[in-house]
Specification:
Elements lengths: L3 E6 L10 H9 L2 E6 L7 H6 L8 E5 L8 H22 L1 E6 L9 H11 L4 E5 L4 H9 L10 E5 L4 H8 L4 E5 L5 H10 L7 E4 L7 E4 L13 E4 L12
Parallel strand pairs: 1-4, 1-5, 2-3, 2-4, 6-7
Antiparallel strand pairs: 7-10, 8-9, 8-10
Helix pairs in contact: 3-4, 6-7
Length: 243
């Protein structure tokens, strides 16, 4: 019988935002893998998963989640993580991989699935979508992501603040992920493109340390890495003006 690897999106942190399908996938799997940067830490994905499955079913696997400068170290970490998950698949047959947000949006699951396809040929790979941080921040802040014919642009600021500035100069709403370490540069880009007034940022959404603030409050203080920004489209012409 073929082994099965399921990437399960568990949302941005609030356990109530895990879908019913996601909960079922976690409970049906023989093992639930959670990605961590260090085997001694409890990450956000694991904290969410433990609301729905017993701790003895959860296995931490170390990934080089934030490694960008040393490609060799990153590749070695991915290979080691892939070997660990492959071992679990051979032993148990059904493995769920819990990822914050959605498994098809800037997720480590993408790389894991590619590795497993080589290590355990014939493995069935599936994904269960999850609520994204931009959806949760929009709900908590009252920001509207899109109306009518407006485009929506999602930018990881790890690609550089210049990429964000180019997006802000265009039409529609711009969402920035992973901008915490470049908060000052992001504020400057918003200011220079005239998009600061309506923008909002948030971190630790749905958790006790949650912060949802106007982007005008940004200064040179570093923010949590997984901070999210929404710069809504410029809207004129009243209700339905973009239809």
């Amino acid at each position: 019988m073929s082994s099965k690897l399921v990437g399960v999106g568990v949302g941005p942190g609030d356990p109530e935002l895990v879908t019913v399908k996601g909960v079922n996938a976690l409970r049906e799997a023989d093992v639930v893998v959670v990605p961590v940067m260090d085997s001694g830490e409890r990450g956000r994905a694991e904290a969410t998963v433990l609301h729905y499955v017993p701790e003895e079913k959860v296995v931490r696997v170390v990934f080089a989640l934030n490694e960008r400068s040393d490609r060799a170290r990153r590749e070695a970490a991915w290979d080691a993580a892939g070997e660990r998950v492959a071992e679990l698949l051979r032993r148990h047959g059904s493995v769920a991989f819990a990822t914050i947000g959605d498994p098809n949006v800037y997720s480590t699951f993408t790389y894991l699935a590619q590795t497993i396809a080589e290590l355990v040929p014939g493995t069935v790979v599936e994904t269960v979508p999850g609520i994204t941080a931009m959806q949760d921040l929009a709900a908590r802040s009252g920001a509207v992501l899109t109306e009518g014919t407006e485009p929506l642009t999602l930018v990881p600021v790890t690609a550089g603040a210049a990429v964000l500035k180019d997006a802000l100069a265009g039409p529609g709403t711009v969402v920035a992920y992973k901008f915490g370490r470049q908060a000052h540069e992001v504020a400057e880009a918003l200011r220079e493109t005239g998009r600061l007034a309506d923008a909002v940022w948030g971190s630790a959404l749905g958790l006790p340390e949650e912060s949802v603030r106007p982007a005008g409050d940004l200064d040179e203080t570093p923010l949590p890495y997984l901070s999210t920004l929404i710069a809504p489209a410029r809207r004129e012409g009243g209700r339905g003006g973009k239809l």
